[in-house]
Amino acid sequence: MNDLQELIENNARWADSIKQKDPEFFAKLARQQTPEYLWIGCSDARVPANEIVGMLPGDLFVHRNVANVVLHTDLNCLSVIQYAVDVLKVKHILVTGHYGCGGVRASMEDRQFGLIDGWLRSIRDLYYENRVELNKLATEEERVDRLCELNVIQQVANVAHTNIVQNAWHRGQSLSIHGCIYGIKDGRWKSLDTTISGFEQMPPPYRLRRWTEPA
């Protein structure tokens, strides 16, 4: 039996169910994608972006990596953001973490995990910067979950600091970045009330002037 047969059969049932509800769905989907949302989330298999927010294919442009990190050296993530903002003209960027994140937990430990250590370094720095607040919490789970929230808040800021987003604002493009978090234990997705929609919500050192070509 083909190792993928179960998945192929699942796909056939899924495609049939979509077509029963809307016979033209895939024909319309093939012509264009016009999502209003970019989702930047964790690679964790328990956090399926579209399903969590009840959206169909085509409604959500998605980028995922370990611990939903946005680094200014990550050309993969930045390319996704640029395509979403400049080409698809998304109106909202949803930076979504989740409680109990394994990547966040690993960044709080003194063990080596391999290549992932470099990737998680920025979260380890965040942990150190907030160690006084975090150490006031009673349990390890509370500390992990709070750092998951702080990580989302930091990544929202990192997205806002990119010239991609700021050039969109300079053009007058409507674009908001939201920090959200998902609870694997209860399936609930919520806002962390950290939305950034313009320059006035950022510290002055991070506000970039409009770029002009050199003479």
What does this structure look like?
The chain is α/β, with parallel strands linked by helices. 44% of the residues lie in helices and 13% in strands. The protein has 10 helices and 5 strands. The chain has helices at 5-21, 25-31, 49-52, 75-87, 102-107, 116-119, 121-129, 131-135, 140-160, 163-170; strands spanning 37-42, 60-65, 92-98, 176-182, 189-191. It has a 5-stranded mixed sheet with strand order 2-1-3-4-5. The radius of gyration is 19 Å and the shape is globular.
Q: Give the structural class.
A: alpha/beta
String of helices and strands: HHEHEHEHHHHHHEE
Helix amount:
40-55%
Q: How is the main sheet built?
A: 5 strands, mixed
Proportion of residues in β-strands: 5-15%
